[in-house]
Amino acid sequence: MNLAIKNITTGYGKTPVISNISLTVGPGRICALMGRNGSGKTTLLRCINGVLPVFEGNIRVMGKEIQKLGRAQVARMISVVPQTHFSPFSFSCMDMVLMAGAARIKAWSAPSGKEKQKALETMAETGIDHMAKRPFNSLSGGERQLVMLARGLFQDTPVMLLDEPNSHLDFANQHKIMALMQQVTRKRNMTVVITLHDPNLAYYYCDDVILIHKGRVKAAGKTCTTLTNDVLSAVLGDNIQCDETKKGVFVVIPKHIPQKMN
């Protein structure tokens, strides 16, 4: 099992934010974390990455307990794609991607030609190789997010954590990124945990889902069986429902849709 979390409680200072959370995600699978704002999704990601201490329980990646590893070791096992990122320096997009290889490169060494070629190929995977020389800080929010995704993939870890990666992307790029993650996850046999707000994206692109409500797991399982009216209403609010279109496509929509004016 690539990622195994058992009964963890964590938070900030001495105040717990999430309690008694357990989950396992195997290789080649994408797990969506869903819940309302403030439910503890990002806190859970930070705990998995070893940034927040574990009050109780344990987290294992590839059988190794995260709490007992140094930051360089964690970086070789877990990559993170944050919601937003701004660099205080004027790095190029290629430089931003190459930085993810720091855990593999010896101290005071420069990236090799092979590393640079691999970085360019990874950028091509996300469709941004043409931006390699552009200043990262000159990009739009959506373009930066694509660079950060390429950076996470270049880190080449068995586990990747993504915190609302679609928050700055337009409709087409949201589906492009999710389809790409699905493809790469299968190809590399990696484990992906991703926080999402859209149940539709979770249903079609994620294998498993965990719904967190007030810091605790409300429901967990395969997306196709777990995302139901009762579960979604209990976690996300009672103004939503699961439905099917005339073509049999699963969708999650508001219960009360305003009548369209002619």
Summarize, please.
The protein has 262 residues and is of the alpha/beta class.
Explain what you see.
The chain has 262 residues and is α/β, with parallel strands linked by helices. It folds into two domains: 156 residues, P-loop containing nucleotide triphosphate hydrolases (Rossmann fold, 3-Layer(aba) Sandwich); 73 residues, no CATH class. It has nine helices and twelve strands. The strands form three sheets. It has a six-stranded mixed sheet, sandwiched between helices.
Question: What's the layout of helices and strands?
Answer:
Elements: E1 3-12, E2 15-25, E3 29-34, H1 41-48, E4 56-61, E5 64-65, H2 71-75, E6 78-81, H3 93-98, H4 113-125, H5 141-155, E7 159-163, H6 171-188, E8 191-195, H7 199-205, E9 208-213, E10 216-222, H8 223-226, H9 229-236, E11 240-244, E12 250-254
Parallel strand pairs: 3-8, 3-9, 6-7, 7-8
Antiparallel strand pairs: 1-2, 1-4, 4-5, 9-10, 11-12
Helix pairs in contact: 4-5
